[in-house]
Amino acid sequence: MEVSENGKSASLRQAFGNVLSFFILLLVGVLAFSIRLFSVIKYESVIHEFDPYFNYRVTQYLTKKGIYEFWNWFDDRSWYPLGRVIGGTVYPGLTLTAGSIWWLLNSLNVPLSVETVCVFTSPIFSANASWATYLLTKEVKGTGAGLTAAALLAMVPSYISRSVAGSYDNEAVAIFALIFTFYLYLKTLNTGSLFYATLNALSYFYMVCSWGGYTFIINLIPMHVLLCIVTGRYSARLYIAYAPFVVLGTLLASLVPVVGFNAVMTSEHFASFLIFIIIHVVAFVYYIKGLLSQKMFNVAVALVVSFGMVVCCAVVSVLVPLVASSPTKGWSGRSLSLLDPTYASKYIPIIDSVSEHQPPTWPSYFMDINVLAFLVPAGIIACFEPLSDASSFVVLYIVTSVYFSGVMVRLMLVLAPAACIMSGIALSEAFNVLTRSVKFQLSGVPEKSQSGDTTSRIAVTQSEVVKTEKQPPIDKTEDTIKERTSKKNKKKEKEHEEKASLKSQIQKRLLVLPLETSIIAILLLVLLGAFYVVHCVWAAAETYSAPSIVLTSYSDDGLQVFDDFREAYAWLRHNTEVDDKVASWWDYGYQTTAMANRTVIVDNNTWNNTHIATVGTAMSSPEKAAWEIFNSLDVKYVLVVFGGFIGYLGDDIDKFLWMVRIGGGVFPHIKESDYLRDDEYRIDSQAPSTMLNCLMYKLSYYRFVETDGKGFDRARETEIGKKYFELNYFEEVFTTHHWMVRIYKLKSLKNRIRGKAKKSKSSSEGSVTTSLKRSGKIKRNPWH
């Protein structure tokens, strides 16, 4: 009777715990969504940054034209005169997701615009990512750790920076796909279910569609499989978790046009195929071990190893010439930059020029993950007590993500989920110990009888565990392979697991801290959590919610809004012809195409380094040479961003040396040393003449002296070197209110006499020109 009552109370507690967990997860999802709405509340519902404008433009095309037109779309408004095949060069996951949401809402008579759906896609998927984090962490350390990790991820600033409302970028949905793929892998690893293995491959397919960071998954999972094999943790569950994932995942990945045969032809994927061969060899060895005697087994192992060596040599003989034929040995430029942090600065300056590809500083870790940086080591230690296949995977995840985030600040985004998982495990384990200590001290110390009963129960259980340990251990791996469907074997395995868990419960019961220490530690952890919440809310509201398209600053006069970018794009849209070409640095290509609806020469896709180098060379050249380059590209307008008037850092003058480096990498006559004075970048009177006479300098500082009479650059905090000059080949047509965006038009050449008439008049024209020069009526251009 007492046993049945205990069973009912346990089931009631479990049901209540499940309901409570559900409501906590619901609140976590609401928190993840709402904390990302500061950008809409404080500013307006607008697309942020640069890349999201291209994604928004593509989504508009998808919803208007349909999926088939989208796959075959040739965009003639970018990369003129080359153009771009959108369907074959874009990761379609984000676009298809937002397009599907828009279609579903309109089918339900919810008439939201495409822009509104795009703005709120990121907050929606941040809630999904929090729930996926709960599922993943639950597979490692239980429900408590999962709920804590989900709450931490909902607020972590590193993820907020890429998922605020309006940040319509690939990472918004890719982080959810990354975490969910890892969860399904661990679920398959813990259960051995082929159903979850299939879902894992489908989730990986969605990740491939969403972001180029899918290569992290296809390398991390093989690394974990190899770790399990080397440490003697191979099982049939490991095989089921990996083999279908590689086969189905690779086949599905090759269906994505932007990936295609790269799924089997590039070095980023070779590790998965190598481990695929190794796990089959190991599986075959374990299989024949149960069928043969020891002597025959040794002979068979020798044959299998020999055959495996032959296969490996054949594979290597095919791959080595293939890899050696590639200048980058089959690796992409970004992958090589991660493996060798100095590679991009040596060979691919276009990658090195992107600010988010730079290594992070130590303060950025505290800014983006805050107190989680101090909790991660405790979480790693907790994963080793006891060490399981799932906990070893998250340890490998945090170690690799720490390295990659140290190479490229953009990959702090990959570190954030791992840090939240480890911190959730650490906090959960700490609260378990502390609350258990408080409960034991309050309930067990005053009552001797209860204490005696507890002690006797512990003693009895310890004796059972000792007996269990004296019994020969069950070889789970061998039994699983031999007779997986055997009920007797499953029963033994279950009893062994129950006794092992009973032993761990006894060890936890013996770990009891003093009452005062436990209470103080709980208060400190609560204070730490409160500090984390305050920091995350501040980062979401003040640091990561401001859209880059609209800038703000606070002064004595109050809040100032700088809406110069939209002002400039509106001027282009209303005052230029539809087929006019606009040249600018590649950072502003996506925005110009989406907001001004004008053709650009280069944009943020950066797929053609020579084209970008041509624009960089034009900006680095004297005015006449730059005019000739732009005129050859049919450019009619040139757009530059200038922050010297309001003190805006990150304008084209700040980026100018990257234009020089990228241009010089293709056109050797452009040398960075010509633009420096004693290896120092200057714009004042000490700047070299090459710098003072280049097109970028002239377009940025033309008429700038008229603003204050001195030409003081507030961004660089110095007075410019050349103040008074005229433009001979370009004319200013528009400058925004705060001088942040300046637009110039190429002057057209005067009509020239061509053919025989020109030759016949050459001598007479030469004599006239000479006489005019002597009389002083024709002046030489002093800037060339």
Could you walk me through the main structural features you see in this protein, from its secondary elements to its overall organization?
Residues 464-500, 755-784 are annotated as: Disordered. It is an enzyme of class 2 (transferase). Residues 774-784 have a biased composition (Basic residues). It is built from 37 helices and eleven strands. By secondary structure, the protein is mainly alpha-helical. The protein has a five-stranded mixed beta sheet, sandwiched between helices. Helix 3 (51-65) packs across helix 6 (93-107), helix 3 packs across helix 29 and helix 28 packs across helix 29 (589-596). The chain is globular, with a radius of gyration of 33 Å. Mean pLDDT is 83; it is low at 445-490 and 751-784.
- Rg (CA only): 33 Å
Order of strands across the biggest sheet?
Answer: 6-5-7-11-10
Determine the number of helices (DSSP H or I, runs of at least 4 residues): 37
User: pLDDT below 50 for ≥5 consecutive residues: which ranges?
Assistant: 445-490, 751-784
Task: Give a brief rundown of this model.
The chain is 65% helix and 5% strand. The protein is mainly alpha-helical and 784 residues long.
List its salient traits.
two-stranded antiparallel sheet; metal-binding; five-stranded mixed beta sheet; single chain; 37 helices; 5% strand; mainly alpha; EC 2.4.99.18; 784 residues; 11 strands
Set down the secondary structure blueprint.
Elements (H helix, E strand, L loop, with lengths): L1 H33 L3 H5 L8 H15 L1 H5 L2 E2 L8 E2 H4 L3 H15 L6 H28 L1 H13 L1 H4 L10 H21 L2 H17 L3 H17 L5 H18 L8 H4 L4 H20 L4 H31 L8 H7 L3 H5 L1 H4 L9 H7 L3 H12 L5 H19 L4 H33 L3 H23 L5 H7 L4 H24 L4 H29 L7 E5 L2 E5 L1 H12 L5 E3 L5 H8 L2 E2 L8 H12 L2 H10 L2 E7 L14 H11 L22 H4 L2 H7 L3 H4 L3 E2 L4 E2 L10 E6 L5 E6 L9 H5 L1 H14 L9
Parallel strand pairs: 5-6, 5-7
Antiparallel strand pairs: 1-2, 3-4, 7-11, 8-9, 10-11
Helix pairs in contact: 1-7, 1-8, 3-6, 3-29, 6-7, 7-8, 7-10, 7-23, 8-23, 10-11, 10-13, 11-13, 12-15, 12-22, 13-15, 15-16, 21-23, 22-23, 23-27, 24-26, 28-29, 30-31, 30-32
